[in-house]
Amino acid sequence: MLLLSLTWYEIISVSLANGEPPITASIMAPSDLHIVKHDFGVILSWNSNITEEIKTYDVTYVLIYKFDTAKEITEKLQKKEKMIRLGLHSGFHAKVKTQLLSKESEDIKESNWTEFTYKAPPVYIQNFSCVIYNVSNLNCTWDIKTEAPEDAQYFLSYRHSREEFQCQLYLTNAKNKNTGCHMKEVYFNHTNNIRFNITVKELSNSSENHSYYKKIMPQRLEKLNPPINVSISLENRRIKINWKPPPTIGSAKKKCFTYQVKITDLEPVDVSEEEYVHPIHDPTKQYVIQVRAKKTTCISNKFWSEWSEPVFINDEYKDYKMNTWKLLILILFPSMIFTAGLLIFLCRRYKCIDPILTPIPHPSDRIRIWLASDAALCQEYGLVLQTSNMLFISDLSTPVTEPSFNTSEVNMHSEIMLVPLEKNKHKGIN
Questions:
Q1: pLDDT digit string (tens) for 237-296?
Q2: Which of 73, 226, 318, 356 has its CA 20 to 30 A from that of 23?
Q3: When comparing pLDDT for 295 and 321, which is higher?
Q4: Poorest-pLDDT segment among 142-146, 170-174, 301-305, 349-353
C-alpha cells in the first residue's frame, strides 16, 4: 500500500512539474449536439466542454453514427463537427465522447457518451442506382415508396466538373411517375465525383419540395464494353486466346483490368493479363470462346461487362465430321447395294411380285369378232335394238312392239330373227 501511494504521488508530481493537470481530473462529456443543413447532407457539431487546464493534452473526439439499417461508422476527429452525407437515408443515430491523451505518457482519459438522434425529412424514393455504359451513356433508376404522396413527381439532375446537367429523357411507370432517367453523349472526368440530386415536388403544394443527394465516383458506376479484338490460335495442341481491353472513362492501364474467359461449358477462368492459354485442344470437339472485363485493381467496380461475341474453333471439327460422314457412307453404301441385290434375287426366285405385275384380263378375240359381226348384221338389215322390248325398222315410221310378233316366229328372250328389207317390204306383220 505504501509503495502504491508513493507511485501515485510521483505521477501527480511529474504532471504538475510539466504544467499538466492530473489526468485523473473529471472530463465533461460533449454537449449541445445540433444539426446544420448542407447541400450534401447535414453538419453535426457539439460543444467540447474542455477547460483551460485540459487543453494542454491532446484532445480527440470519437464519433459513432449509424443510419437506419446500415452498419455503424466510427471516426476519430480533431474538430468539433462532422459533415454527414444522408444520401437517401431518413436520419441517423450518433454518439460522441472526448478522449484526452497525455503528451508525456500514453495514458488516455475518456468522457461519457453523449447521444443524438436526427430525424430527416421523409424520403420517398429507394433503391437508387446508376450505371455508365458505352463510355458516354448514363442510366439511373429508383423505386417510389408506398408512403409517397400521390401527386408527387420526381426529377433528377447531377453536377460534375462544376456544371449542372438535367435529365434528358425520363422513364415512367404505369402511374406516369418518373422512375428513371436516360442520358446520352455525356462525358465524365474520372477524377471528379458526380453529385446526383433527386428532387421530389408535390404538385398540390409547391412549398413541399424535398431534395436528396448522392455523391459517387464515375468509375464505380461504369459498366465496361466487352473486350475487343478477341483472337485465337492453336499451338502444340493448346488454344491461345488474345484480346485488347475495352475503352473506359478512367485509367486504361493493363493492371486496372480483370478478365474472365469462358470456353464452351467450362467454368469461367479469372485472368489478369490480356491472354490465356487453354492447355488441352481436342480436335474432335467444337470450342466456343468468350471474354468479359471489369475493373478491380485501380478502382473497385461491381459491374462485369457483357460477354464478347463468341469465337469458334471448328475448322478441324468440321473436317472431323466430314471424314466421319465419308467413312459412314463408305461402310453403308456397299451394304445397301448388297441388300438391294439380295431382295431383287429373292423376289424373282419366288415370284413374290408377279401378282402385283399381272395385267387385268381383256375380252378374248372370239368375243370381239362376234360383237363385230353382230354390228355388221345390224347395219346390213337396218335394225337397231334400243331395248329388250322394242325393235325399229328403218323404212317404217312406227315401232314394232313385242305383241305384234308371232311368238312362234320370234323368241324375244333368246334371239331376234333379222330379215332383209327387200324381202320384208311386201309382207305384213301379224
A1: 888 999 999 999 888 888 889 999 999 888 999 999 999 998 877 777 888 999 999 998
A2: 73
A3: 295
A4: 349-353
- Conformation bin of residue 39: beta by default, left when phi > 0, alpha when psi is -120 to 50: alpha
DSSP H or E stretch at residue 408: none
Return the amino acid letter for 69. T
What residues have CB less than 8 Å from 96, skipping those under 6 apart? 30, 33, 46, 61, 62, 63, 64, 113, 114, 116
Tell me the residue type at 89.
H
Give me the torsion for CA of 129, 132, 138, 143, rounded to 10°: -10
Cα-Cα end-to-end distance for the chain: 180
Listed range (52-56, 140-144, 146-150, 394-398) with the worst mean pLDDT: 394-398
- As a whole number of angstroms, the distance between CA 66 and CA 116 comes to 11
Q: From CA 61, how far away is CA 67, in angstroms rounded?
A: 20
Of 155, 154, 156, 160, give the one whose Cα is nearest residue 136.
Answer: 160
**Cβ neighbours of residue 245 closer than 8 Å, sequence gap 6 or more:** 227, 228, 252, 254, 257, 274, 293
Considering only CA atoms, give the Rg of the chain.
Answer: 54
And the C-alpha cell for 110? 475518456
Query: Which residues sit opposite 164 in a β-bridge?
Result: 159
**What separation in angstroms does the CA of 308 have from each of 122, 212, 256, 260?**
44, 37, 19, 11
